[in-house]
Amino acid sequence: MASKSRYLKGRAIIPEPIPKDAGVVDLVYSYFQAYNAGWLREACQLFAKKYLDSDVTVGMTITGALTPAGLGGACIVPLM
Questions:
Q1: Can you tell me the distance from the alpha carbon of 23 to that of 21, in angstroms, rounded to the nearest whole number?
Q2: Closest Cα to residue 30, out of 16, 43, 20?
Q3: Distance from C-alpha of 71 to C-alpha of 57, rounded to nearest angstrom
Q4: What pTM was estimated for this model as a whole?
Q5: pLDDT at 2
Q6: Which end of the chain has fewer CB atoms within 10 angstroms, the N or the C?
Q7: What is the rounded average pLDDT of the residues 13-29?
């Protein structure tokens, strides 16, 4: 039997499972580490940084049939 490579001699990396009560912030900052989740984390950080600047105007566009579906008052009005 061949011996392990020198690269495989370290401790195994076992990620912790995501808890049931993890919030969105916990998911983004603690668990989204690699691949597309890592890009999503970076996008969230950039959005939050730019959104919280004092000289920022936030704009909103809407597409789809929210009003005919009766969701205008439930979705759009609270955002205003």
A1: 6
A2: 16
A3: 25
A4: 0.47
A5: 60
A6: N
A7: 85
Residue 71 DSSP label: -
Confidence of residue 4 (pLDDT cuts 50, 70, 90): low
Task: Tell which residue, 22, 45, 11, has the closest CA to residue 31.
Answer: 22
Q: Which helix (H) or strand (E) holds 35?
A: helix 35-51
b/e code 14-47 from CB counts within 10 Å (16+ = b)? eeeeeeeeeeeeeebeeebeeeeeeeebeebeee
Which token pair is 44?
């969230």
In the predicted model, what is the mean pLDDT of residues 47-73?
A: 79
Contacts of 51 by beta carbon, 8 Å cutoff, 6+ apart: 58
